[in-house]
């Protein structure tokens, strides 16, 4: 009987009255996940032109191609940023037109950073090509390295994060987290020529600072020692200086922990205090026990 | 030549005769992955109303909105459960109409649990907000925390698991596993206010029992010590009591292993026997070797 | 003003002149990600017929069903392989028709391996059913085990890898990496009855050799000790012999490292040299420190 | 240059300032064509259940199937009617909630007419089956007679027209006009057992009144003699009494023109004044000239 | 209240009990409109290869392209024909496997006619190019003449009609009727080099017989004089011999009416008896009244 | 057997060798129907902004909205025009870059006409509002009058026709022909404030010239007397001067036929020679025979 569905509907709606926080019923819309995914896809095709296209990209028509994509992203991003700002300002009395103006300005400021992001993307591609013996070509890196996509989207999200736009940067990076298993908080500051290999399980926290030419493998955590809410505004995550390599499964924790330049951190190493530059850090070898399964050791 | 394709077709079809088990040619259809994904998406939008919508959700039309979604899910779920039951009963001689009646009853019983699941979802959101210093708002948690989505879908799949419906609960949780890297078996019993941060690589086994206010980080395994098929029906996975926190990469194994309440398990710790309540468990610090890369130690 | 967009467009296009490598503007198209995903999906439905279908697959029409899918894949794969070969040959002066002929031959050679791959898929399904106490049926394994999908697609990608086709095999496996968190390089040689449970974070390197009846859990790395570019063409990853089980989080590194048959590698173990057959390898137990959180130990 | 696009954009936007009427920039949204098409499709599948489905419609699940479709249509229609009312009231100061309440009431009143419309649809199907020697079965009529679809949608649109809802009824009938070439104004009153054969070019004006068992062929116009705007509110189109047949290409004009019952109007006849009942009206036969093409007559 | 929807649902379901004929609830599925549209689209792309493609059709891959499309159509058409046969046989006790075998045979017989249909399509294209001064090229005819598409689909539907397959041929032609306004019954026999210009409103009845090189303009009806159900199995529609041209709006009625070869029928002429060969038939000229609008004649 | 499909494939491919003209196998691609439909849809939403949108169109973001649509259309149109030019030039030796430059110039010239087309669209809307007593508002006209859409798309196609671009203008108008039953050749010259009511079956030939304030009803033909191929380049269709109204079913033929200004042409009138200005032309009244069906006259 549909009457039962009606009953369940009424029961569910009753839970709307008492429970604030997981209904979004009134007020302005929140940013749309699908729009943000579309924006990311379009911006990636500006940064790596010709790699996602089905048709040959003619140089003749290049400025229209890039221009159209920019304008399309611009328009969508303005709308999403505008929602995001309205959400942020909801207790204040800003007028809609003020929000729209701010959204428009922030969008332009963001789009202007794309040339720099393209510069960095090239360096990231080169870092992957250099860092992985299995990589055969730039094309292979661009088409099949999840770490490259994660860092490229992060570089965009980080620009929006710096502009103090809520929700959108996190939604961007979380989209990549779901695609790649690489979880970078948009707050993290990451230098040039960054390479994440394999990447599944990598976690890079909000206040992490990473230098240039850093290489990170799957399962690495750059995390916080403390998870006290009241310390949300201080540096909780480590600093990684230039030319550091961190092998798979290593964990580096703490806002005052710093890994000095040129250091290599071995797999599975657990670090909670600073390491001087030029170090080699690794777990004791041969810690395991080896027995014959059938009794004889 | 298409003749070659014909030859390959004949060769493949020959393999159908001798190999049972990976063809599904006769008998009733199996549950459809796409339908199950659609059902999940609809149910999530009932639990978190207004977060997946592109249009503002007017309170005026709320009962139609929820009612329509419920009825849509109800209808799809009945069809999928009916397939699932037919599959389960295939050797017995139940009539189709009996299966449909059972499917219909199970679907209602399931939908009635949604109000409770909404209650728990609110508590899970609050747990995330409290547990992660980087979380700024409930909206951010709902829009971008994969752990929240994983536990919410798990709570639904677990209800179906308890009803002894085959295939569907596993397909639900596996869908979330693919999206989030968090692998929870639908059999796991998980209490209120559960929070998984980052989450990639988390594995929670079928007979795990978890209390309230438990917090789990990326890469945590709650697994079995034995993988003997004949022990499939006994408790193989650990019990985690209330207020336990388990940091990244920790592994807790065994059906009789119990982690006492208020305990904190440090990162990468490997546990195969019970821990008393109020404990702090962590690996020995500074186990690594630190050398200068260029020879000097 | 759209003038600003125009300015940004011009700025971005300027970066095309100086930066080779991340534009793909001239020359032939690269393989299309979407086509490759479609090919994978179709081939999977040939290997596991009736599992992805919405309609009952009638035996009467089976040869048309399989034939149509084969011809569809054949045609798409030829086109993608043709692009891939053109890309590989771009500096040489091969004619288009020569490339097409080669693409056509390679496609047939590949499709002929599908019967063997179906044989292996059945054995992989049986290995999962046997290896996981939670697995209830072959149907459950096929519908919800990510490790099965990863190994099945790998077996196809590996055939293309052996034919020296660039880009496509990596794109195939990377698609599965994104879906499952399991990162297998298409170069890896993997024997019959392979089972990966849970799988998130598994990494299997290009020159890995794996025997029959091997079982691997989440977070296992079969990796290289050295990442020197000049060693790209030597064996850099380990050999795993028959009947080996490797528990979660274990790391096995190095091209000369070999794990002897029947060996069990415990969770989180870190191995960089060979292990004799019939071994049981595990970390020292109880390495952790256990304190009462409130001061008393 | 994108500058040129910018210039054209500016030029187009300038035309917004001076030209009212073809911009819809401010104020509430208008009804969405796509939503209205979706509503029509859903309602048609309620009226002719099982004809648009890909899956067998089980009687067991029938009430959920119909209920879900009703609720889905209900929700969409409320939203579209609400937009339509806001549009109608835009100069008055009705509050949104008042509009929503009215939309909700009108939607229910409309949905309650569906049982009657189903009754009439059955009679219309039977009229087609009886009226066309080429019709083999009810199934054939429902699946392939455009006239049936046109009259069915008209019967729905007419109910909305009677409720004085602007835009939506016209959009509904115009959708069918585009599909079938049959242009019925939603204002037309049409009795039971109506059959339009072939239908292309049929035009039935707003104030037409048609009795029962009327049959109309392609190219028939039931139109107005006068098109003076100031006569918009008087009856401008003819009355067709019961059991009338009108053959292809006939034109009947004028609000006081009435075709008496049982009358047959021949093809291409042009009528501007009333015809008594039981008439047979046809053009003079053999009006054409017949010559031999090559000179001899 | 959803209760009201429940009430309406119950009321609608009540109408299912008493009204046979417009519910399709039990028994086998009917042919699917969407599948039939897809089949038509695929077959058209076999007949006019390279015109609907986005990518260049390489001769090298041609046999795969055509083969894949044939096999795809073959498989879909078999399924639809099988449903159609089951529908036809529903009172008889034919077994499913018998139906499937018949469907399979009919599908092959049909596909074998495609080469002939391609021959005729070329002649139809040439007829259009020759017959319309505005036609510039074969490409223009294929890309933009609705009459060509209508006759091409008719030639396919007619083959299925001759095989006594119910529903599908009518659904095919009705799809084209909706696209083009040209309503050809699949029973009509139409010779080579047929050209319909503009075409809107053309109706060609079931038992029409048309010779070669016939040209027909918009609004032409080739219809029946009588619409008595009991005459369904006799020839009700006219015969048009070779080289006849019929201008717009002409109506030719009756099963014994024959238009002799080389005849030209003028616009709007109404014919109900046979016309000898080599005739020119036209309405009396200047039948209209011409007045000055402002009183003076 | 798939062998039979192979045989049919071979038979069809054989027909490729001998039959030129209905294969498009080599040479450049032809314009894509789908792209042209998308371009039309986008351009219509520039001309009638806010009518096809689901979201409210904010004035703040208007220039981005229009700019993005323009750039999107610009890019697609350039590509389609480029294909069209290559097709036209296929026997000459123009270089690709020359074609692209020409395509680019033509696209701009076309887009610059959009402001004028918007001016004319407003006048066409007003003509419909004035000309049809049933029209209630501009919104109703824009949302539901097929004649308005037909003339608007024609005005765009005509601009491309004047630039001597092959195929595309015909494909545009034919798309509207299929949607509306109104067949306007892109060559026709049509003045301001043009209104087609109902429209099904209207045909307007290539060399027709129509003045301002002309009103046309369904089934009107403005056609040619002669269809000799060698007269393709002379004026074959009539001239309609300002303020003329042509009622349904009227036919006006011949390149020297001119309908003087202010004239009204009655329904079904057939005209092949010029009519002076200020005329009223209609068929003799009461030409039909009226009998009692049952014998008495």
TrEMBL record, chains A, B, C, D, E, F:
The keyword Electron transport does not apply. GO terms for biological process: amino acid biosynthetic process. The keyword Amino-acid biosynthesis applies. It comes from the Bacteria. Keywords: Acyltransferase, Amino-acid biosynthesis, Transferase. One of its GO terms (molecular function) is acyltransferase activity. PANTHER family: SERINE ACETYLTRANSFERASE (PTHR42811). This is Serine acetyltransferase. It comes from Oceanispirochaeta crateris.
